[in-house]
Each structure stands twice: as structure tokens, then as C-alpha cells.
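User: Modeling request: complex.
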Amino acid sequence: MIRVENIVVSFDLGGGQEHRVLDDLSLAVQQGQTVSIIGSNGAGKSTLLNAIAGTVPLRAGRIYLDGKEMTSWPEWERAMYVGRVRQDPMAGTAGEMTVLDNLALASRKGPRRFRIATPARFVREMEEKLSNLGMGLESRLHENVSRLSGGQRQALTLFMAVLSQPTVLLLDEHTAALDPANAEMIDALTRRFIEEYQLTALIVTHDMKRALREASRVVMMHEGQIIADLSGDEKKNMDVAGLVQLFKTARGEDYTEDRDLLI
Amino acid sequence: MVEGILVEGLIYSVLALGVFISFRILDFADLTVEGSFPAGAAAGAVVASTLNLSPSLLVKALAVPAGLLAGFLAGGVAGLVTAEVYHRLKTPPLLAGIVTMTGFYSINLRILGGKPNLPLIANNPMLNLAHSLLGGLVPQEWSLLAACALVCLVLFGLLDLFFHTEIGIAMGALGDNENAVIQAGIQPNRLRTLGLVLANALPGLSGAMAAAYQGFADVNLGQGVVAAGLATVMLGELIIHSQFISLQLARVFLGSILFRALMYAARSWGYVAGITPNDLRLLTSLLIIISVSLSRLGRKRR
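Assistant: Request completed. Predicted assembly structure:
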């Protein structure tokens, strides 16, 4: 499980003033739980994932993974346990290397050895696993990743992120840069991987319908804080209209300007 | 003449392998080579010629391997310095390389015993061994070529193997997309350090061989070697298009021989077009410009 305790991420505005992107935020996610994180632009959704992945420095607070404190770990060390897929399909793969070499890179976490990376056994294993995905990637093992379509590349990135069975999977708008058909396909693949590998996952999205559909728990953020946390029956009985209402109540008057962003 | 071109091509291809690793594999514009190449020349020449004068036969027999190793290590140390400057001070790659290259000019003078030049005419164990490698079966020039080819073949085999290992694959990914390497739980800086050490150890080895071949080690041997190495790598890329590391390595050797052949042609017949040896650097930079233009053109068409 992952536990975030009273974390603060901020940047200086000058003159002793600071803007808090994450404001004393705490969140605990149980093993095997899938959590959607929603909120308007600038609410701090992506920053929360960045804080967990270790790409933004914390001003305060602690982060625990399976009870181990990893607040001071650098990004590469956290990556041993944290899988991550971002919006940009280019972000997680080496484009000028083959699909096979990328898979070899992702198949295991941690320091490398002087050992042949892609023995015949590994190639067969990957062919089998990829053909199960139904993306046609198994026949393109020896092609450079840059030749794949955006959808294929994101599917590969997702597959690479789960291949080493991370303790927690962070998905940051990972279908937002894709066309609707590909987005749907990646969503289906995500569901399948989460189930198959029993993953703990945090999904950041703008899309409320998707947030309700893909997760058993929905967390709503606003101005760096969690303003609603729905699970169990409360989440089951929730719909998009209900979420909008909830947001309105929690945030107060000045809601209208953000309406389009939320739906 | 053909032997000369091939021998020079092979000796300098070892340098170009280093440039290939820094500029292409690591995507690190490394100028350290201008310091690591003469460092290897100096260290190789000093160690080989000193051991060669030993009365002990055993020590004397070690002169050549120890000289080659000294060149390799001296270059590697230069690479290590650049990597440390780059990682600890977070300087741009160019600045890290310039700092090391500048500092190594003085270090190389010290290795050479405070003199800018160390002649090896009477005491050149590496060249002697290369000449006698095939023991009178073939002319000395061909024996020298065989020795260089042997070194290059061994290096090609080892590097090809290395880039198929987990560490080699990760190093390839590092220059492509550092984030993909971090996501795999790998410390990127350690990996880059290893790459830069290798990318300068090879030029160091090349320097040791070059000093033996020319019959002297000189502190100014490094001038222009980055450009020559780059031109070599680019020429290779023009001849062979490939995404496979084995061919990418092999084409460095081809590029180097072609580059030396072009330089030889310019030296020998350039006078027809009014080209003097003074113009060789200009030709090198023109060669780089032409290579880059042609590869851009090729990319647009694809």
C-alpha cells in the first residue's frame, strides 16, 4: 500500500510568498485498490503523482510504501516499486531502440548485469505475452519503437510499466493524447492489467465518467487538498451529476468558470 | 600506401569508437577526447618504453600489453573526470569536456616528464612487436596491419557483446530517453559515468597505438581529434544505414578507413586542386558539413 502524510509542495512567488500546489495533503491507498483522482486544472492531481514518483521536491510531509518511508529516495530508486505512465506516449520508451530492447529494459527493475539482455527464452516469452494483448506488437519486436503508432506506443509503455509488477501504478492522463478508439483500447488494457497483476493504481483524469467507471474509489482534489473521497456504496451510488454537485458544494460560489473543464 | 591507409584507419577507428559511444550512444557532446587521446599516447609510450628497458625478461615481455593498458586507463581517467564534473556540478557536457581537456594538457606534459615530446625511435616495443607478429612470413607492413586488425577485431567482438548485455542495452536507452532508464530503477548517472569512461578509454588506447605507429608521443596529438572522430562516425553512417548495434559498430571501422583514404588522397593528389596539407582540417570540417547535409536530406525524403 501507499501512504502519503501531510505533504506540501510549493513554489516561491517572491517576496516571502509561496504558492502551495499540494497543501498538507494526506492519502492512504490499500493494496489492490484502484483510485481515480479528479479535479480542475491546477488542483494538484499530477503534482500528487509526481510527488509519489519523486520528480518534485516536498516542502514537508512523508511518503510510505508498504510501511517503508521513501520520502528521501531519488526517482530511480522509487521506480523499483512505482510504475508510471504519462500522457505523452514518447515519455516512457526509448524510441530509437527496438520493442524487444525496450522490453528487456523494463522486464526487471534495478541495477543491470553483464548478461545477455534478450536470450531466445526471453524473446519467446515476450512474443507470447504480447500476442495476448492483441495489438500486433509481437510481430514488430525488432522494429524501433518510434515506428509504432501513438496507441501502440502507449500500450507498450503500459505493458512495460506493469511487466515488473510494481507495488503501485501511477497513470497520469495516460489516454488523454490518444484518439477515442485508442483511448478506449488503452482503458480496456489498463483494466485487464490491474486485474491480472492485482495492482494498486492511481488514475488521474479529467473525465468524471471515466473516473467513476475505472475505479472503486474516487478522490476529488481542489487547490492542493482533497475535498471528497468516495468509496464503497457511496461511490457506487454516485454519478457525474452527483460529482458536479459535490464539487459545487465543496468549492462554493465561483464554480461556474470551471464547469467545462470538469465534464 | 594501401597498408598505410588501412593501418592508420584501424588505429584511429579505435578513437572513433569512443566518439561514437559518447556522441551517438550517450548523446553526450564530449570534447574530453582531445585530452584523453594524447593522455593515452603519453602513458602508453612512457610505460611501454620504460618497461622495455628493464633487464628482467618478464617485465620486458609485459611492455606492450602494459603500454596498451596504460593508454586505455589514462583515457578512462579523463572520462571519469568529465563524468564527475558533469554530474556533480551539473555543467553542460561541453564545459565538462573542455575543463578536462584543458587540465589534461598539463597532466600529459607531466606524464611525458615535462617535455612536450617523447621520441620512441630507438625504443618502440609496440611497433617492433607488430612488425614481427607474423615472423617474416609477410612484409613488415602487412604484419603491422595484421596486428592492428587483431586489436580491432577483439575490440569489435567485446563491444558488440557489451551492447547486447543488460548494461549495454540500458546505456543505449540512456542517450535515447533517460526517463525510460530511470523507470527501470537504474541510477542514470552511474551508467553515464561508465559510458564516458569507456568513451575515453578507447581513444586512450588509440593514442597509445598511434604514438607507437608514429614513433613519438606528443602533447599536441589531441588537436582536432574530436572533429576527425565525428567525421569518421558520420562517414560510416552515410555508407551503412542500420539500427543494429553490430553494424553501427562495424561501420565505424569502415568510416575510419574511408576517412584516412580521403585524407591520404588530399595529401597526395590534392596539389592538383591546390590543396596543401594545411587544408586538411578544413576538409575535415567540410566533410562533417556534407555528411550532416546528406543525412538531413535522406531523412526528409523518408
